[in-house]
Structures are given as C-alpha cells and as structure tokens.
Amino acid sequence: MYEEEIRQIQKLIDTSRRIVGFTGAGISTESGIPDYRSAGGLWEKYTPVYFEEFLRDPDKRLLYWQRKRDLWPKFRDAQPNSGHVFFRKLLEEGQLLGIITQNIDGMHEKSGIPREMIVNLHGSNGEVVCLSCGRIYPAADVFDRLDLEGEGPPRCSCGGWLKPNTISFGQNLRLTDLERAEKLARICDLMIVLGSTLVVYPAAGFPEVARENEAGLAIVTLSDTPLDPIADVVVHAPIGEVVQRLRIG
To answer: What pLDDT is attached to residue 90?
Structure first.
C-alpha cells in the first residue's frame, strides 16, 4: 500500500538538502506516549490546569504536580522509534536543517539530534524551570526528590515555584522559539510533517510558511489535516510503516 506516495516522498528527499521536520504527538504514540485529542488521550483523562491557576491556586498547583508525577515514568522511560530515527538519519546525511516539534517528550534529543537544532515550541518535560529566577533544573533531579504529600509542590533555592519547562494553557509561547521556527520554515526546501493534525496555531502555520516559500511539503499522519490540499504528498498511515520504507543516503 501507499507505493506511489512513498515514491513521491523518496523523490522529494533525494532532491532536497535543507529538510525541516515538523512533528506532533502522533510521532511519539508509537513509543507508548499518549497523545492529547484522540479517544483515551490526555485531554479526555485530565482537565488541563491553566497557567494562571498554577500561579494563584495552591490546590491547582498541587494537582498539576501530581499529574506530572504520574506521567513522569512514561516520559522518562520511553525510547525513540523509527520516526525519530528517520530524522537522525537525515542529519547524518547532512540533509536535516532542523526540527520543529509540538511535543514535550524530548524524544528527538534522545534520538541523537543536537538540542540546538530542535525548536521545542511547547517546551520540554526534561527540564524544570523556576518561575521567579529562571534557573533550569534537570527534571530527573526534581522528580527524584519530589515529596508532594510531605513538602508540597517544589520550590527553587531562591524560593520561587518550580514548574516543568513546558507551555501550559494560557501561557504564551516563547518569542525566540517562534522566530527560530519561522526562519527554518522560510529557508527549508522540504518540510516533512510526521504525526501532527495541524490544527493548533501558531505551530500549524509553519508548514504553510514553508509552502509559501516554495518548499516541498510531505505529510504523514493518521488523520486528515487542513493542509492536505496544499501538500505535495499525503499519507494517512502509521508513521513507522512509511519511514521504514524510505531510503536515506
């Protein structure tokens, strides 16, 4: 199945030297990390805690940390799958310009792609940040000593509240990340979208920017996306089934 679509993607890869990956939750579900919108996803299980609630409401702050503690082992132990390795292979061939990801799981870093090449639009679960002084802690250090029942939500040495370094509902994306992502979208000659429904903006606007600047656009995801009509090739199939049939190098 999908023989013609895979041939089209292969041709795009073979003729491109400035490839940018754009990834959503769908790339990591094959590593056992749940997505947000599908049946049984995180939004069905958990009502989001908004950023202002985290700041102002002690009960919501505790609830937020309890959920992060419950999910931490899954993020900590998950390993990159063939979708993540696909981009690392492009890097090894000198074809990868960078990755724009909506994910917070750090799987691209785990796969071997340098952090400076990755735009984590929604932050990373691998870090914890102080909301007062901005100090960054490795997430493992914080979760290893977390004592919510005894000490409550953790604080920085400066006294400020600690929070996983991810973008919460009601919290603005970082301007520097948006600028980096837009630059990548403008200068790439091919953008490959893996596992995104392309409905969350401003993130979903970057494939549009790439297309407007005459880059190729390939989309591999299970569901339809609003950008399917403008893409060069679209495959609605599991990511692993597609990327394992592509030749890199």
So the answer is: 98
What share of the chain in percent tops pLDDT 90? 90
Stated pTM of the model: 0.92
Helices (H), ranges, 25-174: 42-45, 51-56, 58-77, 82-92, 107-111, 139-144
Q: Is position 108 annotated as part of the catalytic site?
A: no
4-28: pLDDT as tens digits: 999 999 999 999 999 999 999 999 9
φ/ψ of residue 89, rounded to 5: -65, -40
b/e per residue, 172-185, with b = 16+ CB within 10 A?
eeeeebbebbbebb
Q: To which CATH superfamily is domain 34-77+123-166 assigned?
A: SIR2/SIRT2 'Small Domain' (3.30.1600.10)
- Strand ranges (DSSP E) for the chain? 19-23, 96-101, 118-120, 123-130, 136-138, 162-166, 190-194, 216-220, 233-235
- Out of 84, 108, 122, 236, pick the active-site residue: 122
Look at strands 96-101 and 118-120 and give their pairing: parallel
